[in-house]
UniProtKB/TrEMBL annotation:
Protein name: histidinol-phosphate transaminase
PROSITE patterns per the UniProt record, alphabetical: AA_TRANSFER_CLASS_2
Keywords: Amino-acid biosynthesis, Aminotransferase, Histidine biosynthesis, Pyridoxal phosphate, Transferase
Similarity field: Belongs to the class-II pyridoxal-phosphate-dependent aminotransferase family.
Top-level taxon in the UniProt lineage: Eukaryota
Length: 397
C-alpha cells in the first residue's frame, strides 16, 4: 500500500483531534515588562537581594532567566536536531519531551482510546511500552522477534498480519537497535511494515542508534518525509551521556508532532534541560558525542565481546551488538542456557562484588541472559574479572 494510506483522522483520538490547546499571553507577546504569567520578578529564592553573592548557580540563573517559564517548543534545540539527523524536513517535524518515556506515554495517549485500542510490540523489547499501555488501559498485541537464529529481526509477515487483521491496533512499536537485543532492524523490513496497508503509526525507538556500525545502517529519521505514518524516537540519555536532563526527541510528520505539542503540558521540558541540550547539540557537542559513541562501540567489539566469550560459562553473545550493551548467555555444565545460574551470578555480582548488570533471562528468547552495559575501559575490565570470579565461585560452590 502507498505511504499515503496513513490516515491521521483514524489514528488520532477524536478528543485529541478536537483539543483546544492551552494558550498563554507569551504565545503572542514575549517582550517588555512581563507581568502575564505570575512569575516572580525578583528571581530565584537564592538570589533575592540585588547584587548579593549567591551560590555558584546564581550566574546561570540570571543568564538563563530561570524565573521565567521555559520556551514551550524549544525551536532552537529542534533546529540543532536537524543538523544531527540530515533529511528531516523541518523543526515542525521534531518533538521534545521529558525523556523518551514521556514521548511513549504521549504517543499512546493521542492514539489509543482506553479500554478499546491496542499497541503492537515485538518481544523481547523495552519494558516501558507495555507499562505505558497498562497505565493507559490500552491492549498489547505481541508478535515476537525471530529468536531461533539469535538474530532478533522482525517476523515481518506476522507483524503485518497481526496489525492489519486487528482494527484495535493503532501503533506498531519497533525498537532499533532493540533493547535487550542490540539488533538494528533491517531497512527493507521496516519499509515493508510501513508499506503494508496498516494505516496506523509505526514507531521506531532509536534510543541506541548512534552506536550502530555504519555498515549496518543509519537512523530512519530521514524517512519521515516519505512516510507520514513513521515516527522515530531518540533520546539524549545514551550516546549524549545526558540521562539526567531527561530529554527525549520525537521525529515524525508535522501533523503527529502538532498533536503531541497540543497534548503535552506546555512547560514540561525545563530551561535547564533545553540549555544543556543546546550545548550537547552544538558542533562541538556532536563531535564529542560521535567520538565517545565510536569509542564505546570499539570497546564493545574489540574488548568486551571477545573477553566475555573466553569465559567458560558464557555460551554466546547474542543479538546484533549494535548498542552500548551486550547480551550474553550463561550456560550450565552441559552447555544449556541457564537462567537459574544467570540469576545467581547477577545476584552474586551485585550483592557481594559491587558490580551491577541486568538479568534478562526471563525475557522471551533470552534464556540465561545477562545484559551488560559497555562502560569505561576500566569498568569493562572490572566486569569481565568480576563475572569470571562469580562464575567460578558459583560453578564450584
Ligand atoms: C529502547 C529504549 N527506549 C527508551 C529508553 C528511555 O529513554 P529516556 O531516558 O529518554 O526516557 C530506554 C532506556 O533504557 C530504552 O532502552
Amino acid at each position: 500500500m502507498p505511504a499515503s494510506s496513513f490516515d491521521i483522522k483514524r489514528i488520532i483520538r477524536p478528543n485529541i483531534l478536537g483539543l483546544e490547546p492551552y494558550r498563554c499571553a507569551r504565545d503572542d507577546y514575549s517582550e517588555g515588562i512581563l507581568l502575564d504569567a505570575n512569575e516572580n520578578s525578583y528571581g530565584p529564592a537564592f538570589q533575592t537581594e540585588a547584587g548579593e553573592e549567591g551560590p555558584v548557580c546564581s550566574g546561570a540563573a540570571d543568564a538563563l532567566q530561570l524565573h521565567r517559564y521555559p520556551d514551550p517548543l524549544g525551536r532552537d534545540v529542534k533546529q540543532r536536531v536537524l543538523q544531527l539527523r540530515p533529511g528531516v524536513p523541518s523543526v515542525d517535524n521534531v518533538f521534545l519531551g521529558v525523556g523518551s518515556d514521556e514521548v511513549i506515554d504521549l504517543l499512546v495517549r493521542i492514539t489509543c482510546a482506553p479500554g478499546r485500542d491496542a499497541i503492537l510490540i515485538t518481544p523481547p523489547t523495552y519494558g516501558m511500552y507495555k507499562v505505558v499501555a497498562s497505565v493507559n488501559d490500552v491492549g498489547v498485541v505481541k508478535v515476537p522477534l525471530v529468536v531461533e537464529d539469535g538474530s532478533f529481526q522482525l517476523d515481518v509477515d506476522a507483524v503485518i498480519a497481526a496489525a492489519t487483521g486487528n482494527p484495535a491496533v493503532k501503533v506498531i512499536w519497533l525498537c532499533s537497535p532493540g533493547n535487550p537485543t542490540g539488533t538494528f532492524l533491517r531497512e527493507e523490513d521496516v519499509r515493508r511494515v510501513l508499506e503494508s496497508g496498516f494505516g496506523g503509526l509505526v514507531v521506531v525507538d532509536e534510543a541506541y542508534v548512534d552506536f550502530v556500525r555504519p555498515e549496518r545502517g543509519q537512523s530512519y529519521a530521514r524517512l519521515v518525509g516519505e512516510y507520514p505514518g513513521l515516527f522515530v524516537m531518540q533520546t539524549m540519555s545514551k550516546s549524549f551521556g545526558l540521562a539526567g536532563i531527561r530529554l527525549g526527541v520525537g521525529i515524525g510528520s508535522r501533523e503527529v508532532v502538532g498533536y503531541l505539542n497540543r497534548t503535552k503540558a506546555p512547560y514540561s521540558v525545563s530551561t535547564l534541560t533545553l540549555s544543556v541540550a543546546r550545548e550537547a547539540l552544538s558542533d562541538r557537542g556532536l563531535q564529542q558525542m560521535r567520538r565517545v559513541a565510536q569509542s564505546l562501540a570499539a570497546q564493545r567489539d574489540e574488548y568486551l565481546i571477545p573477553e566475555l566469550l573466553r569465559l567458560p560459562r558464557v555460551g554466546a553473545v547474542i543479538g546484533g551488538n549494535d548498542a552500548n550493551f551486550v547480551l550474553c548467555r550463561i550456560v550450565d555444565g552441559a552447555g544449556r542456557p541457564s537462567s537459574e545460574l544467570a540469576k545467581a551470578v547477577y545476584t552474586e555480582m551485585a550483592e557481594n562484588r559491587g558490580l551491577v548488570v541486568r538479568f534478562r533471562g526471563a525475557d522471551y528468547g533470552c534464556e540465561g541472559c545477562l545484559r551488560i552495559t559497555v562502560g569505561t575501559a576500566d569498568e569493562n575490565r572490572a566486569v569481565v574479572a568480576t563475572l569470571r570470579a562469580a562464575l567460578e565461585a558459583l560453578a564450584t560452590g
